[in-house]
Amino acid sequence: MKISRLSLSTVSALITAALLMLSMTIVFFGVLWVQNLYEQEYLSQLTPNARLAYDMLDKGELPKEVDFLALVHQLKPLYEDGETELYLLVVKFGLGAAVICSIIGFWLARKISSPLEQLTRVVNNLRDGDFSVRVPDIGKGTSEVQQLIHRFNALAEELENMERRLRFNTMAVAHELRTPLTIVQGTLQGMADKVFPRDDDRIEDLLTQVEGLARLVNDLRTLSLAASQKLVTERSKVDIAQAAEQILQASRPLLEDAGMVLETDLKKAMIPADNQRLRQAMLAVMENACRYAAEGGYLRCESGYLNKEEAFLRIVDHGPGFAQDVTGHSIDVFWRGEPSRSRASGGSGLGLSIVRAIVTAHGGRLEQENLPEGGASVMMIFPRKLPAKTTAES
Question: How far apart are CA 354 and CA 316, in angstroms?
Answer without folding.
Answer: 19
